[in-house]
Amino acid sequence: MKFQKEKTLVLLKPDAVQRNLIGEIIGRFERVGLKIIAMKFVVPTKDQAFKHYVKNDAEIVALGNRSIEGKKKSGIEVKEDPKTLGQQIIDRLVRFLSSGPVVAFVLEGNQAISITRKLVGSTEPLQSAVGTVRGDYTIDSYTLADNDNRAVRNLIHASSSQFDSGYEIDVWFKPEEIYSYNNVRDRILYDVNLDNIND
Ligand SMILES: Nc1ncnc2c1ncn2[C@@H]1O[C@H](COP(=O)(O)OP(=O)(O)O)[C@@H](O)[C@H]1O
Ligand SMILES: [Mg+2]
After folding, report:
1. What CA–CA distance (Å, rounded) separates 181 from 171?
2. Most buried by CB count within 10 Å: which residue of 28, 67, 83, 149?
């Protein structure tokens, strides 16, 4: 079967850079079999960070709704409407992402989007599973972040759908900055004729 080749956009957020976790985190994606096809070290502008997070206005409300759901589950009373709350989260995210250097890269491989999300772990570090980037390398929570009026420091972003990855790759990379190349490892990962590996 032909493999389902996908590209996904990953950002190591300013907390990952500040904590010297670049190598540790990138190593995990290399190790699993994904291929780095573009990479840069950049201090994002506020506009770039906003463009990355807000693909359309509905996204702000959706983010607010997810936050309200989470808060209700934890027994926290919510006074703000979804739009106000979503806007507040976006403002904090934009401030955080543009606060210092980040590492942006594109990974390619079989079902790269979901494989990468699996390695990244769920959004709130308090909940993310052991073995994931967010579960293994940090300890932040929404409650702590909200209390300090800041974005949750969860180290990493990874695209969550094919639409998002296409959009986000465009935010961070020009087409000529993305390199399609053969990697010797591709053969053992994808070649249908594994029996002939020693030919
Ligand atoms: N309920 C929330 N409270 C505070 N920040 C949030 C909340 N939900 C999401 N965020 C922040 O917004 C970012 C984007 O949200 P989302 O796309 O839902 O998560 P993910 O980064 O896991 O894809 C998250 O990485 C996190 O920094
Ligand atoms: Mg997301």
Report:
1. 22
2. 67
Same domain, 123 and 28: yes
Tell me how far the alpha carbon of residue 122 lies from the centroid of ligand 1, in angstroms. 9
State in Å: Cα 97 to ligand 2 middle: 14
pLDDT of residue 1: 66
Q: Are residues 31 and 50 in the same domain?
A: no
C-beta 67 within 6 A of ligand 1: yes
Residue 70 CB–ligand 1 contact under 6 Å: yes
Q: Do both 33 and 52 map to the same domain?
A: no
Over residues 38-72, the pLDDT tens digits come to 999 999 999 999 999 999 989 999 999 999 999 99
169 in the same domain as 124: yes
Is 78 found in the same domain as 158? no
Of 40, 48, 82, 81, nearest in space to 65 by CA: 82
pTM: 0.95
Does residue 170 lie within any of the structural domains? yes
Q: Is residue 61 part of a domain?
A: yes
Residue 44's pLDDT is what?
Answer: 98
pLDDT at 74: 86
Which residue range(s) make up the domain with 79?
Answer: 45-99
Q: Is the CB of 152 under 6 A from ligand 1?
A: yes
For the chain, the maximum distance between any two Cα atoms, rounded to a whole number of angstroms, is 67
| Probe residue for ligand 1, chosen from 69, 78, 123, 128 as the CB with the greatest number of ligand atoms within 8 Å | 123
Residue with tokens 């967010």: 134
